[in-house]
Design a protein that fits this description.
Order of helices and strands: HHHHHHHHHHHHHHHHH
Number of strands: 0
Radius of gyration: 35 Å
Length: 683
């Protein structure tokens, strides 16, 4: 589709010289114009044939997405017929052959306008599809956020029921951890006393204390890890299905005990995205999406957070001791003691709470589970009602399919089935809690957690797919936009040069030349509008620091050029700025083409930042850095060029003054852009 759009743009721009009229009197030149016009007729006929052939091939695939593309192509073909572009071209050829150049020029203006209208039809369809995809992305992001909150709540409820179901074992484990933390506090206080007494005794004494601090830190981290392991691992395969067999889709959430009857037996997690045993490695069970603060992350146990903080304080103390900074080390050691004491208080409070757990605790847990189930039910309904229609490019077959009974004819949202299954498991868990059967409730809660994680994974996969698709579309749209801008600017630049030569030769402009000046100014304004559209695409994407700024510089240059041409200033300065615009657009096109090739070749595509909702930038930092370097080189070249044309001993023209002032501003902007790019790369 985008290649066809580029072809039509090329055709339109090939005709653009007609804007400037036909001044040829030579019969051979008239004949040559007729030949060129016939070539354009053949190009247009070839484009229409490609429309039809490509539409046939797309329809033959039977894939709904391709069928939708075929419909767009046929719509464009129909519009081309309605616009009567080819008959009008034939008329122009006849007029050229009859040397009726004024009439031919007027009709060529009409052809260009009709081709521009056709381009807008294709662009509108592309932009409409991009809008639909963005709407789906926004919808899935909201679902993902709600789902993460539900998962957090469900994990907390599952943990509580697990503690109740295994109360004696949990209390025994807490007693062991309390004893360990008391020992850590004792040892940390001893290190603090040693640091205080070793002040001024040399670096060797502090080195020995640093080694002791290292040992205590490692033990603190180990206790924090042990705490995260106290809760029995959740059951269920987070990839979906029942890891023990049974109903792979959850079916009856009570059928096929996901834990095999033993809430702690074996490694019930199988392919848990937390990394097999959720207790190893990441003390919080790992983050399956890398950086997602909620999705799949196990809530911390009592005392765990303060132990982590104490370990950070101990690390800082260790570093300061190694550097011989006793005073700073003592400060960090005292903070470590404070956090260890807070962790001890957390653990003792948790032990007391569990030991004195009233009978009404089951009612409270059942009520909390009911609240989570209600949230999940609302989310499941939202996912069902907000899914993409089956006749949209996002998938499905139009009408008459197995879902034709659905009045909305909608396709399931990713993760929708798993959320529904999780809701059923939650309802069963609520029944277990109401019956004061913590063990049965815990198994169902773990199954719900696994289903929610699978739903999150499915949503993220779809989000990543949409991000990739929209990025490819943005790259294609930008490439088409900049290619059109470059072709128009090259024509405007050439005509500006021709007008300057005429002014130098004849000392003034003819009436025809003045009309040409108006048309050049109009072209520059059209390119300015295109630059604004490209800027909006880049800002909407939001992943680039340098490129939007450079596009705005192009826009500023184009506004200046249009203003200068309007004042009949077509000399060296105007041409320098026009050439600079061309060079910058060419660099943009080169960066866009390289990135599209890279994505198509499998490089630079993938991984979009995981669960945090991030994505790969539209253009890589290396491309931005190259553009920044090119921007600096252009300022250098323009500075030298302005210096060459600046009149010696004369008052500078307003245009030269503005140019010199503008170059100074741009140099300052480049410094700011460099800082922002470095900050982005460093994040």
């Amino acid at each position: 589709m985008n290649r066809i759009l580029l072809a039509i743009c090329f055709l339109s721009l090939t005709l653009a010289p007609a804007f400037f009229g036909f001044a040829q009197d030579d019969a051979l030149k008239k004949s040559a114009l007729g030949v060129r016009q016939r070539q354009l007729e053949r190009v247009m006929a070839d484009i229409e044939l490609k429309f039809s052939n490509l539409a046939d091939k797309l329809e033959a695939t039977g894939v709904e997405v391709e069928i939708q593309k075929a419909k767009k192509l046929r719509n464009a073909l129909q519009k081309s017929t309605e616009f009567q572009i080819r008959p009008l071209m034939e008329k122009i050829t006849q007029l050229l052959d009859e040397s009726r150049l004024d009439e031919a020029s007027a009709n060529q203006d009409k052809v260009i306008q009709k081709i521009d209208d056709l381009i807008q039809v294709l662009r509108a369809e592309n932009e409409d599809e991009a809008k639909k995809k963005q709407e789906e992305i926004d919808r899935l992001k909201k679902i993902k956020k709600d789902l993460e909150n539900i998962l957090q709540d469900q994990q907390k409820s599952e943990r509580e029921s697990s503690k109740v179901a295994n109360k004696e074992e949990t209390l025994d484990g807490l007693n062991q951890q309390i004893a360990k933390v008391k020992d850590l506090i004792k040892r940390q206080k001893e290190i603090n006393d040693q640091t205080q007494s070793s002040a001024g005794k040399g670096s060797s004494a502090l080195d020995r204390i640093a080694n002791a601090q290292h040992d205590v830190r490692k033990k603190t981290e180990a206790v924090a890890d042990d705490l995260s392991k106290m809760n029995p691992p959740e059951s269920g395969d987070p990839k979906g299905g029942d890891p023990k067999g049974g109903d792979p889709k959850g079916g009856d959430p009570k059928g096929g005990d996901p834990k095999g009857g033993d809430p702690k037996g074996g490694d019930p997690k199988g392919g848990d995205p937390k990394g097999g045993d959720p207790k190893g490695g990441d003390p919080k069970g790992g983050d399956p999406k890398g950086g997602d603060p909620k999705g799949g992350q196990q809530p911390p146990e009592a005392g765990e957070d303060n132990l982590r903080k104490a370990a950070e304080n101990q690390q800082a103390a260790e570093n300061n001791l190694a550097k011989g900074k006793a005073t700073e080390a003592q400060r960090d050691e005292k903070k470590a003691i404070e956090n260890l004491e807070k962790a001890l208080a957390d653990l003792e409070n948790e032990k007391r709470r569990l030991a004195e757990l009233p009978k009404e605790a089951f009612d409270k847990m059942a009520k909390k589970q009911k609240e989570i189930t209600s949230k999940t039910d609302r989310l499941a309904k939202d996912m069902k009602s907000g899914g993409p229609k089956s006749n949209e490019p996002s998938g499905g077959k139009k009408g008459g399919d197995s879902k034709s009974g659905d009045q909305n004819n909608q396709q399931p949202s990713p993760g929708q089935q798993e959320v529904q299954q999780a809701k059923q498991a939650m309802e069963n868990a609520q029944e277990g809690l109401e019956d004061q059967d913590a063990d049965a409730a815990n198994r169902q809660q773990q199954d719900a957690v696994a289903k929610l994680k699978k739903a999150l994974e499915d949503i993220e996969k779809r989000l990543e797919q949409l991000r990739e698709e929209t990025q490819e579309e943005k790259l294609a749209r930008l490439e088409a936009r900049f290619a059109e801008m470059l072709a128009k600017q090259q024509i405007a630049s050439q005509k500006t040069k021709e007008l300057d030569n005429k002014k130098r030769s004849f000392g003034k402009f003819s009436r025809g030349d003045r009309l040409s000046l108006i048309k050049v100014k109009g072209m520059e304004k059209e390119i300015t509008d295109s630059a604004q559209m490209a800027y909006e695409v880049l800002m909407e994407d939001g992943t680039s620091v340098i490129f939007p700024e450079i596009v705005m510089e192009i826009k500023d240059d184009l506004i200046r050029v249009a203003d200068m041409v309007g004042r009949q200033e077509v000399g060296r300065l105007t041409q320098i700025i026009q050439k600079d615009v061309e060079t910058t657009i060419e660099e943009f096109l080169d960066a866009l083409k390289k990135q599209r090739r890279k994505k198509k070749g499998g490089g630079g595509g993938g991984g979009g930042g995981g669960g945090g909702g991030g994505s790969q930038p539209l253009l890589p930092p290396s491309a931005e850095l190259k553009m920044l370097r090119s921007a600096q080189m252009r300022i250098n070249r323009r500075t030298r060029s302005v210096d060459e044309i600046r009149p010696v001993g004369e008052i500078l023209s307003d245009s030269l003054k503005k140019e010199i002032s503008g170059l100074a501003d741009r140099q300052a902007e480049i410094s700011e852009m460099t800082i922002r790019l470095m900050e982005k790369v460093g994040q």
